[in-house]
Specification:
It contains 24 helices and 25 strands. It has 739 residues and is an alpha/beta fold. Strand 1 and strand 2 form a beta hairpin. It binds iron/sulfur cluster. Iron/sulfur cluster binds next to helix 3 and helix 8.
Length: 739
C-alpha cells in the first residue's frame, strides 16, 4: 500500500467515511471551507434577503433531536425565527409525520430556563465564565500538555451517531480509546443481543405492512419505540384493508395496547412462558413444524401446556388458543418485543422465546429481513444500554475516573437510588456537563458548557432503526443562536480535539467547515452524480443523504432458551411497572409545558404523577381514583394519587415516569414523583441489563396531598345515563343488526 493510500484512509477516517464498508474510489481531497467564507453579511430587515418576505414563512429541512429516532423535520422560519416544526414528507424515517415531542421541539429551543453562558465551580458554587476561561480550564485538565492519564477520562452520552460520533471517537482515541459509556433508559439492548445471536444483526428490518397478524409482547409501536413515528405510519398501513390483526401482550396498557384488537394482560415476568405456551399450541393444534426449532427446544415447549401456562401467566387458556389460531390462520405474521418482556429478570430468554415464534411461523425472511448493515461504521448509531450505567456507577464508586464528560444523559435523575450515583460522582474530581439545561446531573458538574439548541446547530445523524431506505439525516440551524455564548456539540468536540492537538482536526475553523469537508469527501457513488457544492445544497434542501441498502439474506440461528419465572415476595406483593409514555419519555421533556399539558394517552393525566391500579386490587386495598398511596420497595418509597382502571395487571402498580425532578427548570421542578428511584438491583441474568419490570413493592393508603392531586383532561368518564354516545356489545349487534 502506498503512502498516499495510507494518507487517504486516514483522511477518510477523520471525515467519518472510513471503515470496512466505505467505498474508497473516486473522491478528491477537498480544500477546507471556513464559516467566514460562507458567511452572509448581516443587514437589517429593512433590506431583507431576497428569500425573506416579511410575514411569509420559509421552510428549512433538519432533523428532530427530541428522541434518538432521527425523524426529518421542516422548520417554518419567519423573519429569522423558527415558528413551527412539521414532519419532512420525503424522509423515509417519518414520511411527513411528527410526534408530539417533535412538535414541542420549539419549546425546548425557546425554553426560558436554557443555559446561556459557561459555568465554572468556584468555591463550591457555579459561576459564569467566558468560553476562553472555560477552554483554558479544560486545557489545564485534559489538554495535550496536561499529563492526564487517558484511562481516567470517561464520557457518558446518550445515543450518538453521525459526524459528532466521528469527532467523539477521535477524542476518545486521543485518551487511549476507552471509557465511553452509552446510556439510555429507553433502549432495546436485550432484543438487539437476541437479534445478534439469532440473525447475526442487531437491527433487522420489520415489515408490518406485509403481516396480516402482529403479536406484540410489549412493543409500543405507536408510542415509545425505537422509531415512534415510523412505526405509527407502518401501523396505519397495516390497518388499511385488508385490516391486519393486532394482539398486544403487556402488563400495563400502552398506547399501542389501547389500539389493539385483543389486549392481553400477562403477569409481569412470565411473558416467556406465554410464548412457550403459544408455541405449544401452534405445534400441537396447528401443525407447525417443531423441527424448524433448535433441537432441545421442542422438548422444553412440551412442558408448557395451556393449563400450566394459564396458572403461570394469568392468561386464560382460551385466549392462548385464540392467539395461536389467529397466528396460524392469518399469515404471514410478525412477533415483536418491547420493554415489558425485554426488561425483566428473565428478559433475554423471554425475548428469545418470543423471537423463536417468528421461526416457527416462517416469518424470518418474510416479515423480518436483514437491514443489510450500514456502510459507514464510524457514523453508525451507538445506542445506549442500562448495563453501561451500572458499569459506570461501579467504576465511579471505586474512584476510577479523574475527569468525566456528560452529554445527552441525566443519570442522576434516571439512575435507581441503590446505585448511589451522586456518591459515585462525588469521587470524580472534575465533571463536565454539556447541556441545554441545569438538570440534576449538570448541577453536580464542575464545568458546564451550554449547548446550542437542536434548531441552532449543525450535525448529521444515523437513525439506529433504518426502514427499507437507509439515510444519514442532516441537521442544520433554522435560525441564529438565541444566546451567543452557547455552542454546538460538534464545535465543542472540535475545540477539545484542538486542545488535545489531534492530527487531522486542528485545521478546521469550526464544525461547519468540518462537515463541509466531510461531505466533499463522501465517495462519489453516494452523491447523485453532482458536484460537491450541488450535493451539499441538495442535502440541505432534502434533509438527508440516501444510502442504498445492501441486500443480505437472513437466517435464524439456534438459541438456548431457559425460561425462569419471578419468585413470590410475601412482604412486597405487587409488581412495580414503570409507565414510560410518549411525551415525558425518560423525563427529558418534563420541562416542556406543551408536553406537561398534553394528556397521557391512557389515563388522560396532566402536570403530575399517578399510579394505575386494577379495580380488583383497588377494591382489596379499599382505594378509589384520586386516593393517595405510598408505593414502597426495599429501596425507597413515593406517594402518588391513584387512577383505577382495567389496563393494568392485577397485583401490579404502574407509576408514571418522567416527573419528580429536583432540578431542570420552572416547569419540571417540584411536581410528581420519580418511580425510578424505587428500582431494586434486579438485572437480566444474560445481558446484565437492569430489569425495569423486576421490582416488587407494597402499597398503603395515605392522606391526600392537595398539592399533588390527580389532574385529568376530559372530565367525567361516565355518560351518567344520558346516552350521549350509544354503545352496543358485539354479541348484541350480531344477534340483532348483524344479521
Ligand atoms: S419520534 Fe423522536 S425524532 Fe421522531 S418526531 Fe418524535 S421525538 Fe422527534
Amino acid at each position: 500500500m502506498s503512502g498516499n493510500d495510507i494518507n487517504r484512509r486516514k483522511f477518510l477516517k477523520v471525515m467519518g467515511w472510513g471503515g470496512a464498508g466505505a467505498a474508497l474510489a473516486g473522491c478528491d481531497m477537498p480544500t477546507t471551507v471556513t464559516l467566514e467564507e460562507g458567511k452572509e453579511t448581516v443587514v437589517s430587515y429593512l433590506m431583507p434577503e431576497e428569500y425573506v418576505i416579511p410575514g411569509q414563512g420559509v421552510y428549512f429541512a433538519s432533523t428532530c433531536q427530541q428522541c434518538p429516532a432521527g425523524c426529518g423535520v421542516h422548520g417554518r422560519v419567519r423573519e429569522g425565527r423558527v415558528l413551527k416544526l412539521e414532519g419532512n414528507a420525503v424522509s423515509p424515517i417519518n414520511e411527513g409525520g411528527l410526534c408530539q415531542m417533535g412538535q414541542a421541539g420549539v419549546q425546548t429551543h425557546y425554553n426560558p430556563d436554557r443555559l446561556t453562558k459557561p459555568l465554572l465551580r468556584k468555591g463550591g458554587s457555579l459561576s459564569e465564565v467566558t468560553w476562553e476561561e472555560a477552554l483554558a480550564t479544560l486545557d489545564e485538565k485534559i489538554g495535550a500538555s496536561s499529563g492526564i492519564d487517558g484511562g481516567k477520562v470517561a464520557w457518558m452520552t446518550g445515543t450518538v451517531s453521525g459526524h459528532q460520533s466521528v469527532l467523539l471517537q477521535g477524542l476518545l482515541e486521543s485518551f487511549g480509546g476507552a471509557n465511553h459509556y452509552v446510556y439510555d433508559l429507553i433502549n432495546n439492548h436485550v432484543a438487539a443481543q437476541v437479534n445478534e445471536a439469532m440473525y447475526g444483526t442487531a437491527r433487522p428490518t420489520y415489515h408490518l405492512t406485509k403481516a396480516k397478524t402482529v403479536l406484540s409482547f410489549g412493543a409500543d409501536l405507536v408510542g415509545v419505540s425505537q422509531s415512534p413515528v415510523h412505526f405509527a405510519a407502518e401501523y396505519a398501513k397495516f390497518r388499511e384493508a385488508p385490516r391486519g390483526v393486532l394482539i398486544q401482550v403487556e402488563p400495563n396498557m400502552s398506547l399501542t395496547g389501547g389500539n389493539a384488537d385483543l389486549w392481553v394482560p400477562a403477569k409481569p415476568g412470565t411473558e416467556g412462558a406465554l410464548a412457550m405456551g403459544i408455541a405449544h399450541e401452534l405445534i400441537n393444534k396447528h401443525g407447525k413444524d417443531a423441527a424448524a426449532l433448535p433441537s432441545g427446544l421442542s422438548g422444553k415447549i412440551k412442558a408448557y401446556d395451556l393449563a400450566k401456562v394459564e396458572t403461570l401467566t394469568g392468561v386464560p387458556a382460551d385466549k392462548v388458543r385464540f392467539i395461536a389460531k389467529t397466528l396460524a390462520e392469518k399469515a404471514p405474521s410478525l412477533i415483536l418485543t418491547g420493554a415489558s418482556i425485554e426488561s425483566s429478570e428473565n428478559g433475554y430468554a423471554a425475548t428469545a422465546a418470543a423471537a423463536m415464534l417468528n421461526v416457527l411461523l416462517g416469518n424470518v425472511g418474510e416479515t423480518i429481513t436483514s437491514s443489510g448493515g450500514f456502510p459507514f461504521p464510524q457514523l453508525d448509531a451507538k445506542t445506549g444500554s442500562g448495563a453501561d450505567l451500572l458499569q459506570f456507577a461501579d467504576a465511579a464508586g471505586k474512584g476510577a475516573f479523574d475527569v468525566v464528560f456528560f452529554h445527552g444523559v441525566n443519570p442522576v435523575f434516571t439512575a435507581p437510588s441503590y446505585l448511589d450515583l451522586e456518591g459515585g460522582l462525588g469521587k470524580i474530581p472534575f465533571k463536565v456537563s454539556l447541556s441545554l439545561f441545569a438538570d440534576e446531573t449538570t448541577n453536580q458538574a464542575d464545568l458546564v458548557l451550554p449547548l446550542a439548541s437542536a434548531l441552532e446547530d449543525w450535525g448529521t445523524h444515523v437513525p439506529a432503526y433504518q426502514p427499507e431506505q437507509a439515510v444519514i439525516s442532516m441537521q442544520q440551524p433554522l435560525m441564529e443562536k438565541l444566546y451567543p455564548a452557547t455552542k454546538g456539540f460538534g464545535d465543542i468536540l472540535l475545540d477539545m480535539l484542538k486542545l488535545r492537538k489531534v492530527e487531522g482536526y486542528t485545521d478546521f475553523s469550526d464544525y461547519y467547515a468540518f462537515l463541509q469537508d466531510a461531505f466533499a469527501a463522501l465517495p462519489t457513488e453516494f452523491k447523485n452524480g453532482v458536484d460537491n457544492a450541488s450535493f451539499w445544497n441538495q442535502t440541505l434542501a432534502s434533509g438527508f443523504i440516501s444510502i442504498p441498502k445492501q441486500n443480505a439474506n437472513i437466517t435464524a440461528n439456534a438459541l438456548d432458551i431457559a425460561i425462569t419465572l419471578p419468585g413470590e415476595n410475601i412482604n412486597y406483593g405487587l409488581s412495580l411497572l414503570p409507565a414510560i409514555r410518549l411525551g415525558m419519555w425518560d423525563g427529558r421533556h418534563a420541562n416542556i409545558p406543551w408536553l406537561q399539558e398534553a394528556p397521557d394517552q391512557i389515563t388522560k393525566a396532566v402536570w403530575g404523577s399517578w399510579a394505575e391500579i386494577h379495580p380488583k386490587t383497588a377494591s382489596r386495598l379499599g382505594l378509589v381514583t384520586g386516593d393517595f398511596i405510598k408505593v414502597e420497595s426495599v429501596k425507597g418509597d413515593v406517594e402518588v394519587p391513584v387512577y383505577i382502571h382495567r389496563g393494568v395487571f392485577p397485583d401490579s402498580v404502574a407509576v408514571s415516569v418522567g416527573q419528580g425532578h429536583q432540578a431542570y427548570g420552572r416547569y419540571a421542578e417540584g411536581r410528581g414523583v420519580n418511580p425510578l428511584s424505587l428500582l431494586d438491583s434486579a438485572t437480566d441474568g444474560k445481558t446484565g441489563e437492569p430489569a425495569l419490570y423486576g421490582t416488587r413493592v407494597k402499597v398503603s393508603k395515605v392522606a391526600v396531598n392537595k398539592d399533588e392531586m390527580l389532574v385529568q383532561f376530559g372530565g367525567s368518564e361516565s355518560q351518567v345515563g344520558r346516552k350521549l354516545a350509544a354503545t352496543i356489545t358485539a354479541e348484541v349487534f350480531n344477534r340483532t343488526e348483524g344479521a
